[in-house]
Design a protein that fits this description.
CATH class of the largest domain in chain A: Alpha Beta
Distance between the termini of chain A: 36 Å
CATH architecture of the largest domain in chain A: 2-Layer Sandwich
Chains: A alpha+beta (233), B alpha+beta (482), C alpha+beta (216)
Strand content of chain C: 5-15%
Number of domains of chain A: 2
Order of helices and strands of chain C: HEEEHEEEEHHHHHHHHH
Number of strands of chain C: 7
Largest sheet of chain A: 5 strands, mixed
CATH architecture of the largest domain in chain C: Roll
Shape of chain A: globular
Largest sheet of chain C: 5 strands, mixed
CATH topology of the largest domain in chain A: Alpha-Beta Plaits
Distance between the termini of chain C: 78 Å
Structural class of chain C: alpha+beta
Number of domains of chain C: 2
Oligomer: heterotrimer
Strand order of the largest sheet of chain A: 2-1-5-3-4
Chain lengths: 233, 482, 216
C-alpha cells in the first residue's frame, strides 16, 4: 500500500495519492470547515473558508493535494479567527436577514456563523441594493443572499448537460446570471435539487418555504461539523 | 393664558405616541390629539418578496402579538394557494386556532396585569414610582405572579405550535408545518400546578371576579370615565358567536343596530375606507356607508362583546351574560369596560385552549392543502387589540406587488382620540393647575384600548416626556420634563 | 551575452546577480528606464533620476513596498527590496494617503471577484482607510485595518489578493506617524452611523423633520 502519511493538528492521517487535503481529512474523520465545497462537484476554492496552513503557507484544503509528510494546521486560533472573518465578510457583503429567510436552520452560512459564535460582524454592513429574480417556472434567485460560491454554476445542468447558471462581472459587482431559455426548462425536481445545493437562501424552489418546522431543520439538532466533532469548542 | 400640553411618550402602551392638548386663554380645550409619530413602511418593503414569506416577514411588525400578523398573512396566503378561507384540514385549522388563542391568552394577561392594573390598584393619582408593574409585584405579589405565569403559559402554547415563542413559522400557505405531539399536549393538560390549563382557567376566572369586585366599589370611575357612544366592528362566527380566528364582518352602532352583517371580509374594501391626516402617521379608517365623519368605529374586546351574540364556552358565556345584563343587552360604550371585556376574553381563551388540547384532530397527519392559484388574498383575524386586515396581490412570479395592512390600533385611532378629548374636556379644562395625576388620566384613556403603536407605525428616534406651557402668542413660558 | 555568466555574476549581490531594468516614474526630474546592477541603494537611484526630495518611494508597484526617507539607504535586490522593475517616486507635495487610496481602487477594480477575501475584503479595507483619513478613526481602527489586511493576504486565492493590502500594510509600518496623526486618541469609539442620513428616505416620504428631540 502506497499510502501518503501526513498530520492534521498533530493527528496522524493517511491519504490516497491524488487526494486533496479536504478529501483525506474527511476520510480520517477530521472536520475542516468549508462553504463553497459540495460533495460531487469539482472544487472551486472560492470561499477560502477551508484554508489551512502548511509551514508558513496558506492553502485551500479543497484544492490542495496532500503530499508526503505534510504538517497541516487546521483548528488553530488565528486560522479559525480568519475563517470567522470570511464568514463575517459574507454577512456584510450581502443582505442576510436570517429571521425571515426560509433557509434559516438549513443554511450553511448561518450554521458556520453559529459555529464561530458570530454576534455582530467586525465589518460594517454594506447594504447593497439587489433584486429577487425569477429563474424559470419553479425557482427564484434571491441575489441579496448570494455568496458567489458557484455551486449552482458547477452543479445545475439541463438534462443534456448544459450549465444553466454562469458568473458575470468582476470584483464586488460579480454576480450569478442564468440562461433564460435553459432555466425555463428546469423541472420542479431540478429546482428542488438546485435549492438544496445552494448553501444559503439564494436559490429558492417556489412555494415550499417554511414547510419544515423549527426544531426539525438540518442544523437545529446537529450543528455543522458535528458529524466529525464529538465535542465542539 | 393659552397652554399647550404635551404628553410624550405615553407610557405603559406598546410603542411610542404622544398627546398634545391646547388650551386657550380661559383654559378651555381648543384641540386635543393623540399623535402617532412613528413610521414603519412594511407595506412598501414587502414588495418584491415571495408571498410565502409574508407570514414570517410581517409578524416582525410586533413582538407582542406577532401571531396575529402571522395568521392574518397566512390566511391571505391560503386564498392565494386556493384553499382559503374555509378549506384547511382540521388539524391545520385547529393548530392555528390553538396558536392564536394561546396568544390572546398571553397578550390579554400581559395587558391587564402589567400595563393596566397599576392604575386600578393604586389609583390614577398615586406616585408614578409605585404606579407600575414593579409596584404591583411589591404590593400584590399574587396578582403579579399570576400575570407573569399566565403570560408564560400562553407563550408556551405559541412555542408548541409555531416553533418559537416570538416570531415562529408554524402557519404556512395552505396549512401548518407541524401537529401537536401527545407529549406537548400533556405538558399543558397534565403539568403540575400552576402551569396547566385548568389552573390557568381558574386564574382567569379570578381576574374577572377581581374586576367585577373593583367595579362594584368604583362605579363612577369605571362607568363614567371616557364613555362615549360609537360604532363597533369585529369578526363574528357565522352563527353570531365570539370567534378570534375566523368569521364574517359585523358592525353595530351605539344602540345595537346592525350596520354590517354577514359580510365576507374578502370584500372589506367595499365597506371600509381609510383617511389620512397630516399630523399622524396612522390612518383613520371608517365605514363607507356612514362616511368619513360618522363612520369611525371601535374594535377590540369592547367591540367584540358588542357585536357577538354569545360566547361559545360555558364559563365565559356566564360572565358574558352578567356583562350584557349590566347594559341591559345594549352595546357597551364605556371605555373602561374594555378591561372587563378583555378579562372575559381571557377566560374564554383559556377554555378554548382546553377544548382544543382535548381534540384528537391536533395529532392528525394531514397538514397541508393546495388548490387553484389566485393572485390576490385577504386575511383577517381578531387580534388581541381588534380586527386585523392583511391584503396582498402577487405577480406571475409569486412576488408581492401590493400589500395593505390595517392593524387593530389603526382601527381604534379615532376612538383613542375621542377618549383623549373626553379627558381633556372633563379633567383638564379650566383647572388652575395641571397635575401629573390628571395627565395620567389621559394615558389611562388610551391604555384602555391597549394600543400597539409599534405595530401601527415605527419610531425614528427616542422621545422624552415633556409638558410645555405656551402663552397666547405661542411663546414658551414653562417646560417640564419627566 | 558573449562575455559569459561569470562576468554577469560579478555585478549585483550574491543572491541577486547581474543587472535589472528599472522603470522609474513619478515625481522626479528624469523618469525613464534605468539598467542598474542589483544592490543599488534607493538613494543612489533617486540621485540618478533627480528625485532626492521624495517623501516616499513605492518599490515593486502597488503590491510592493512603500518606504520612507529614513529607508532610502536600503538596497534594490531580492535580499532587501525586491522589485519587478517598478519604482514610483512620491514627491513631498503629494498626499500619500491619496496615493494609497488610488492603489486600493486599483486592486478593487482588478479583483476578479472569485474568492471572498479579495472580493469583499479589499472594499472593506478601502472603507476603513477612508474612515481613518476622514478623521473618524481611533487607535482601534489602526489595529483592525492591520489585522484585516493580514487576513486578506493569508486567505486569498491568488497573488493579487495576497498582496493587495500591501499599500496599507507597508505604509502603516513605515509611515506610522502619518496614521497616528489622523486618528483620535481621546475616544475609543466613533460611530459611523448617521441617524439623519439613515432615516432620510423615511423622513422625506412622511414630510417629517428630524428634530433635536430625536437625537437625545
Amino acid at each position: 500500500m502506497n499510502k501518503i502519511k501526513f498530520t492534521i493538528d498533530g493527528k496522524e492521517c493517511f491519504a490516497e495519492p491524488g487526494q486533496t487535503i479536504m478529501e483525506a481529512a474527511k476520510a480520517n474523520g477530521v472536520y475542516i470547515p468549508a462553504l463553497c465545497r459540495y460533495e460531487g462537484l469539482k472544487p472551486a476554492g472560492s470561499c477560502r473558508v477551508c484554508t489551512v496552513r502548511v509551514g508558513r503557507g496558506h492553502m485551500a484544503a479543497c484544492t490542495q493535494p496532500v503530499a508526503e509528510g505534510m504538517v497541516v494546521e487546521n483548528i488553530v486560533p488565528d486560522l479559525e479567527d480568519m475563517r470567522k472573518s470570511l464568514i463575517e465578510m459574507l454577512f456584510v457583503e450581502g443582505n442576510h436577514l436570517c429571521p425571515t429567510c426560509q433557509k434559516s436552520g438549513n443554511c450553511e452560512l448561518q450554521a458556520l456563523a453559529y459555529r464561530y459564535q458570530m454576534l455582530v460582524p467586525r465589518f460594517p454592513y454594506q447594504f447593497p441594493v439587489r433584486q429577487v429574480e425569477p429563474v424559470g417556472p419553479h425557482l427564484l434567485l434571491e441575489q441579496n443572499r448570494c455568496i458567489q460560491c458557484l455551486r449552482c454554476v458547477r452543479g445545475v445542468k439541463t438534462t443534456d448537460g448544459k450549465a444553466v447558471f454562469g458568473s458575470v462581472k468582476r470584483s464586488g459587482k460579480k454576480k450569478i446570471a442564468f440562461d433564460r431559455d435553459l432555466a425555463a426548462g428546469l423541472s420542479a425536481d431540478a429546482a428542488k435539487k438546485a435549492m438544496d445545493q445552494c448553501p444559503v437562501g439564494a436559490l429558492l424552489k417556489k412555494e415550499i418555504g417554511f414547510m419544515v418546522p423549527i426544531g426539525k431543520r438540518k442544523f437545529d439538532q446537529k450543528p455543522i461539523g458535528s458529524e466529525f466533532e464529538d465535542k465542539r469548542s | 393664558m393659552a397652554r399647550k400640553i404635551t404628553i410624550e411618550p405615553v407610557t405603559r402602551i406598546e410603542g411610542h405616541g404622544k398627546v398634545t392638548i391646547r388650551l386657550d386663554d380661559s383654559g378651555r380645550v381648543v384641540q386635543s390629539r393623540f399623535h402617532i409619530v412613528e413610521f414603519r413602511g412594511f407595506e412598501r418593503f414587502v414588495q418584491g418578496r415571495p408571498y410565502w414569506e409574508m407570514p414570517v416577514l410581517v409578524e416582525r411588525l410586533c413582538g407582542i402579538c406577532p401571531v396575529s400578523h402571522h395568521l392574518a398573512a397566512a390566511k391571505a396566503a391560503d386564498v392565494i394557494v386556493g384553499v382559503g378561507p374555509d378549506g384547511l384540514t382540521p388539524t391545520a385549522e385547529k393548530m392555528r386556532r390553538l396558536m392564536h388563542y394561546g396568544q390572546m391568552f398571553q397578550s390579554h394577561a400581559l395587558h391587564f396585569f402589567h400595563l393596566a392594573s397599576p392604575d386600578l390598584l393604586f389609583g390614577a393619582d398615586a406616585d408614578p414610582a409605585i404606579r407600575n408593574v414593579i409596584g404591583v409585584a411589591l404590593k400584590h405579589k399574587d396578582l403579579a405572579v399570576q400575570g407573569v405565569l399566565m403570560r408564560k403559559f400562553g407563550q408556551e402554547i405559541i412555542l408548541a405550535t409555531a416553533g418559537k415563542k416570538i416570531h415562529g413559522t408554524g402557519a404556512i400557505p395552505g396549512g401548518i408545518n407541524k401537529n401537536l405531539s401527545l407529549e406537548e399536549r400533556d405538558s399543558f393538560l397534565k403539568a403540575p400546578d400552576p402551569m396547566n390549563v385548568d389552573k390557568m382557567i381558574g386564574w382567569a376566572q379570578g381576574a374577572v371576579d377581581f374586576f367585577k369586585d373593583f367595579h362594584q366599589k368604583n362605579k363612577d370611575l369605571i362607568d363614567g370615565f371616557a364613555a362615549f357612544p360609537s360604532n363597533h366592528l369585529s369578526l363574528v362566527r357565522k352563527d353570531g358567536g365570539l370567534d378570534f380566528y375566523h368569521g364574517v364582518l359585523r358592525a353595530v352602532d351605539a344602540d345595537g343596530k346592525k350596520i354590517l352583517n354577514d359580510v365576507d371580509y374578502r370584500n372589506y374594501l367595499d365597506y371600509v375606507g381609510e383617511e389620512v391626516k397630516s399630523w399622524s402617521y396612522m390612518k383613520f379608517p371608517y365605514l363607507r356607508s356612514l362616511g368619513k365623519t360618522d363612520g369611525w368605529y371601535r374594535v377590540g374586546p369592547l367591540a367584540r362583546l358588542n357585536t357577538s351574540d354569545f360566547i361559545p364556552t360555558p364559563l365565559a358565556q356566564k360572565e358574558f351574560e352578567v356583562y350584557k345584563a349590566y347594559t341591559k343587552g345594549k352595546p357597551n360604550n364605556m371605555t373602561l369596560h374594555s378591561h372587563w371585556a378583555r378579562l372575559i376574553e381571557l377566560l374564554h381563551s383559556g377554555e378554548v385552549i382546553k377544548e382544543l388540547l382535548l381534540d384528537p384532530d391536533l395529532q392528525g397527519e394531514a397538514l397541508l392543502k393546495k388548490g387553484r392559484k389566485a393572485h390576490e388574498g385577504v386575511g383577517l383575524v381578531e387580534a388581541p387589540r381588534g380586527t386585523l386586515f392583511h391584503h396582498y396581490r402577487i405577480n406571475g412570479d409569486d412576488q408581492v406587488t401590493m400589500a395593505n395592512l390595517i392593524v387593530s390600533t389603526t382601527n381604534n385611532n379615532e376612538p383613542m382620540n375621542r377618549a383623549v378629548h373626553w379627558v381633556a374636556k372633563n379633567i383638564l379644562e379650566k383647572k388652575p393647575e395641571i397635575t401629573e395625576g390628571m395627565l395620567n388620566r389621559v394615558e389611562i384613556a388610551i391604555r384602555a384600548y391597549d394600543p400597539c403603536l409599534s405595530c401601527a407605525t415605527h419610531a425614528l428616534g427616542k422621545m422624552p416626556l415633556e409638558v410645555e406651557l405656551y402663552d397666547s402668542r405661542g411663546r414658551l413660558l414653562d417646560c417640564k420634563k419627566k | 551575452m558573449d562575455r559569459g555568466a561569470g562576468w554577469f555574476k560579478l555585478m549585483g549581490t550574491p543572491k541577486s546577480a547581474g543587472t535589472k531594468l528599472l522603470s522609474v516614474s513619478g515625481d522626479c526630474a528624469r523618469p525613464g528606464v534605468y539598467e542598474v546592477a542589483f544592490g543599488l541603494k534607493v538613494q543612489d537611484l533617486l540621485k540618478m533620476a533627480g528625485g532626492l526630495d521624495a517623501q516616499a518611494v513605492q518599490v515593486g508597484g502597488p503590491s510592493g513596498t512603500c518606504i520612507s526617507r529614513g529607508q532610502f539607504e536600503r538596497k534594490l535586490c531580492f535580499e532587501d527590496l525586491p522589485t519587478g522593475g517598478s519604482v514610483i517616486v512620491i514627491g513631498p507635495q503629494r498626499d500619500l494617503f491619496e496615493a494609497i487610496h488610488n492603489f486600493m481602487d486599483f486592486f478593487i477594480e482588478e479583483s476578479c471577484g472569485w474568492c471572498v477575501p479579495c472580493r469583499a475584503g479589499n472594499i472593506l479595507l478601502k472603507k476603513k482607510l477612508e474612515k481613518i483619513t476622514s478623521g473618524k478613526g481611533t487607535a482601534k481602527d489602526l489595529q483592525e485595518i492591520e489585522s484585516w489586511g493580514k487576513t486578506i493576504k493569508a486567505m486569498s486565492r491568488c497573488g493579487l489578493g495576497q498582496t493587495s493590502p500591501n499599500p496599507i500594510l507597508t505604509t502603516l509600518q513605515n509611515f506610522r506617524e502619518m496614521y497616528e496623526a489622523k486618528v483620535r486618541n481621546d475616544k475609543d469609539f466613533i460611530s459611523e452611523f448617521d441617524l439623519a442620513a439613515a432615516v432620510k428616505a423615511a423622513s422625506s416620504l412622511t414630510g417629517q423633520k428630524l428634530t433635536e428631540a430625536h437625537h437625545e
